[in-house]
Amino acid sequence: MIQRIQTVWLLLASVVFFALFLFPYFQFSAADGMGQALKVTGSFANVEGQPTRIADSWLLAGATVLLGLYPLYIIFLFKDRKKQVKLINMAMLAVILLGVWFYFTADKAMNAENLAFGLANIGVGFFLLPIILILLWMAGSAIKKDEKLVRSADRLR
Known about the structure:
Blueprint: H1 5-19, E1 26-29, E2 35-39, E3 42-47, E4 50-56, H2 58-75, H3 81-112, H4 124-156
Antiparallel strand pairs: 1-2, 2-3, 3-4
């Protein structure tokens, strides 16, 4: 299990998922000049120089935790490579849906402040999603190579 490269890719994907808790996925300045950041745990504003949570997002945080644990679960299914590939494809779809959720949450926050959605406001957390997709794709490719190798070895027997 640990000597397989897909284990490394899945572990890194899980670590990057949990890094979403550290970085905001969207930042903007409100009409009153107060800077705000959207993280998976909620919306934060800069009040008197201190970051203060102004809204919670428990559902988004819970979904991020579940999605972060998902690659770890996939690692332990190393005996069933076909199931691993299917679950990795499902995880990739879930990452795309999480990105859509990020977009709509950010758009809602911008509309509440009567501001336009801009690329300059996108935070580091949003760019972690493509990294997760790449890591999951690399793990899926490695699993498919393993399956191909096992099939060719079975033909030789």
